[in-house]
């Protein structure tokens, strides 16, 4: 069982610890400068609700949407926003309170996906919440959720190929799968009817696509360098490490990545 736990963590770690996605808007709503008087009423417009993302009134936005959902309004526009509000609340509450709100958010995201899997925002939030919820699942459930998460990612990217956050996530998934050991692949064969397959080149392609969209994103730039380094192409990896080291870290996660980039760059 310990080996299976190691396997599940190896393949799902990009999703369990996706801090780079936590505080980004993902481009799914346009902030509104100020709220009209209608925002104080019992029914807010979607524009007014979207203006609450990233503010200290996130709970108010969630409560307003949850009231509509409980009254039977379960359109995709309600569902993905509920998932996003749950994600924001989950980023703000104490760790011991995070599980329930993330699981709830995933439920709304999957409802949106089941309503229309060809809707970009439904697919995007299904992928993001599916990845985030794995932190709270058991070993078997984590592995099963990883399969679904890849499906959501592929669908969302097929609809919107220039979504850098999702391209990066899929690159992380591919890199993890490509790096599985022989023993881990044997374990995967026991747990999957069709074991996951991916190559380092596939990961590099997704990281490069995300880099073309957002070249100043430290995490993606470092991972692009790491993927090239793991492929054995140190001369191609070095410029990305050097580029990342010119950027300023905004959180502890990025500081750790830059320290890793500095170490790897010295070996190129």
TrEMBL record:
Keyword field: Signal, TPR repeat
Listed Pfam families: RMD1-3
GO annotations of cellular component type: mitochondrion; mitotic spindle pole; spindle microtubule
Domain of life where this protein originates: Eukaryota
GO MF entry, a single one: microtubule binding
Residue stretches spanning the membrane: none
SUPFAM superfamilies: TPR-like
Signal peptide extent: 1-18
TPR repeats, residue ranges: 218-251
InterPro entries from the UniProt entry: RMD1-3_a_helical_rpt (IPR049039), TPR-like_helical_dom_sf (IPR011990), TPR_rpt (IPR019734)
Listed name of the protein: Uncharacterized protein
């Amino acid at each position: 069982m310990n080996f299976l736990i190691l396997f599940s963590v190896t393949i799902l770690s990009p999703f369990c610890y996706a801090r780079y996605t936590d505080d980004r808007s993902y481009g799914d709503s346009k902030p509104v400068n100020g709220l009209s008087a209608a925002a104080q009423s019992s029914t807010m417009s979607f524009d007014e609700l979207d203006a609450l993302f990233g503010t200290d009134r996130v709970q108010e936005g969630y409560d307003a949407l949850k009231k509509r959902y409980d009254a039977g309004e379960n359109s995709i526009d309600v569902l993905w926003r509920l998932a996003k509000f749950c994600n924001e609340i989950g980023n703000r509450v104490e760790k011991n309170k995070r599980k329930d709100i993330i699981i709830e958010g995933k439920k709304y995201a999957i409802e949106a996906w089941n309503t229309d899997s060809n809707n970009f925002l439904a697919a995007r939030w299904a992928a993001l919440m599916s990845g985030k919820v794995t932190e709270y699942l058991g070993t078997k459930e984590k592995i099963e959720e990883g399969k679904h998460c890849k499906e959501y990612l592929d669908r969302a990217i097929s609809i919107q190929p220039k979504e850098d956050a999702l391209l990066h996530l899929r690159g992380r998934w591919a890199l993890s799968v490509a790096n599985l050991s022989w023993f881990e692949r044997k374990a995967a064969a026991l747990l999957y009817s069709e074991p996951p397959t991916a190559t380092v080149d596939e990961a590099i392609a997704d990281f490069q696509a995300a880099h073309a969209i957002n070249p100043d994103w430290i995490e993606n730039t470092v991972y692009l360098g790491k993927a090239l380094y793991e492929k054995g192409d140190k001369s191609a990896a070095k410029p990305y490490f050097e580029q990342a080291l010119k950027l300023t870290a905004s959180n502890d996660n990025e500081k750790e990545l830059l320290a890793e980039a500095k170490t790897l760059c010295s070996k190129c």
